[in-house]
Design goal:
7 helices, 6-stranded antiparallel beta sheet, Beta-Lactamase, Helix Hairpins, Chemotax_Me-accpt_rcpt, about 375 residues, 13 strands, transmembrane helix, cell membrane, MCP_chemotaxis, alpha+beta, Methyl-accepting chemotaxis protein McpA
Length: about 375
């Protein structure tokens, strides 16, 4: 995989290939593993450890300075003892031992410095990765939960509107007046529910007979019989069921990024009525996705080193702060990791370390997208 730049000097990887992606560490977190730090988050903890490192270095430097002076003093003492001849012999032995002790102390201080620096570096890596990974995972969970809660409402909308008398009449009466009334009714709904691009009504053969914004989207008479949302709705067992087509650029709304929820329109609006056709509601996916992505609570400077994504069960990128939504897929090895409820991992891409926090959709009420939220951040900055 080749790495591209988010903004200099922070690296952001491309996901088009995964030949050089390597997982280096991952860990699940239980509730008892949560770490509490100040408002500065991991920076507070890392700052304290770095300060400890500086304090240890300073103390060892002082020991070495004292030992250096002791060695010099012992050397001078031995010189003076030699000058004193037999009278200074005993003092010369003491001076020699002082010099030897100073050398041993210096060696011990240097060994302690080396071990301390290695231990502190390991501690820095552990705290930095754990605190960072846990925080990214928390944010990822919030993002996917917001999406599940919002899209749950869409599943309710389509089942409710599929029982509206105007759409039932348009499909059962099959008159121009009934169809025109359905268009007007769908348009009225759209005026109140601005999260939708359009609402379309198709008969059992897949021919669109009405839509809410005919002046903007010319979908009437279009054949949608092969569309995923139509086909799945036609196979639902009752009016309590709905169907769904994942994020895509829909030709029904001039290739805007969309999700389409659908439900069968049934005779008399009854849950057990025979199927008359299908109502499809075309949701503005970018409006929700980009709002969630852009409002991820990253601290100042983090956005330059962080990539926030929503991916489906297969790893296809559906929303992306890097602007590659519906153009890329994440590596399959990542999808093995995100099957867990809440985890993080340290990965290496082209030799560049990243912390990857992720969360699987927890679901809301009776609904879940089954999608995953990923937040990857360059390690070493932020």
């Amino acid at each position: 995989m080749s790495a591209t730049q988010l903004s200099s000097p922070a690296p952001r990887p491309s996901l088009k290939t995964n030949n050089n992606i390597k997982q280096t560490h991952d860990r699940p977190f239980a509730e008892s593993d949560e770490m509490s730090v100040g408002d500065g988050g991991s920076d507070d903890v890392l700052g304290l450890v770095r300060q400890l490192n500086l304090t240890m270095d300073s103390a060892i430097d002082e020991i070495n300075e004292i030992n250096s002076r002791t060695k010099l003093l012992a050397l001078n003492a031995r010189i003076e003892a030699a000058r004193a001849g037999s009278y200074g012999a005993a003092f010369g032995v003491v001076a020699a031992e002082m010099q030897k002790l100073a050398s041993n102390t210096t060696d011990a201080a240097n060994q302690m410095a080396s071990r301390t620096q290695r231990t502190i570096q390991l501690l820095l890596d552990l705290i930095g990765t754990s605190v960072r990974g846990n925080r990214l995972s928390d944010m990822a969970l919030v993002n996917i939960d917001l999406i599940d809660r919002n899209l749950y409402e869409r599943s309710c909308d389509v089942r409710w509107w599929a029982t509206d008398s105007s759409v039932v009449d348009a499909l059962s009466e099959k008159t121009a007046a009934a169809t025109e009334h359905a268009c007007g009714r769908l348009g009225t709904i759209l005026n109140s529910y601005t999260v939708y691009w359009d609402l379309v009504l198709a008969d059992t053969k897949g021919k669109v007979i009405a839509n809410g914004r005919p002046d903007r989207y010319r979908s009437i008479d279009r054949d949608v019989s092969r569309a995923v949302w139509f086909d799945r709705a036609m196979t639902t067992r009752s009016g309590e069921d709905f169907a769904f087509e994942t994020a895509h650029k829909s030709s029904l709304v001039n290739d805007e990024a969309s999700l389409i929820y659908s439900a069968a329109v049934r005779q008399g609006g009854r849950v057990d009525g025979s199927i008359l056709g299908v109502l499809g509601i075309i949701f503005n996916w970018d409006a929700l996705a980009q709002s969630v992505i852009e409002n991820t609570p990253l601290r100042e400077g983090e956005k330059e080193t962080t990539r926030v994504m929503i991916v489906d069960e297969a790893g296809r990128v559906l929303a992306d702060s890097g602007g590659q939504a519906m153009n890329e897929s994440v590596p399959s090895s990542w999808m093995e990791l995100v099957k867990k409820h809440k985890r993080f991992s340290t990965i290496s891409i082209d030799g560049i370390p990243f912390c990857l926090g992720f969360a699987h959709a927890p679901g809301y009420e009776t609904y879940t997208t089954g999608w995953n939220s990923l937040i990857m951040q360059s390690i070493g900055k932020a």
